[in-house]
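ok so I'm stuck.
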Amino acid sequence: MIMVQIFYSILFAICESIFYYIVDGYFYTTLEQFVLSFLLSPFVLQIDRIISLYNYNILLVALMYPFLFWIFEIVGGFTLIYYFGKNNAWSYNTSDALFCGIIRLYYYPLFYFLGLMFHFIDVWLFR
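replied:
not stuck anymore, here's the structure
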């Protein structure tokens, strides 16, 4: 499982860096983001695998991914704030940001497609 966690943490860092490049014109990610992805990815993957056991339509299953990512951001963000006094991994200051700027509602479609990608990679490589 550790190799899977490392794989998904690197994959997420690459996706995040590309997203920053497209939106802001430069590549960017943080070590904190990588560590949190490493620690929390087993939970997201296990939830996906459990739901997949019931053979639900993957497009419907992917609807849960934004909520899983937001839970990940809330747990990880507040954990960083608790231990370090701030969240260096990410911070949103837009009108759709919630939970002290820890989640952003605008990212629902992005997280949906990211969840689909993670699901298919998990099925193809690790099951």
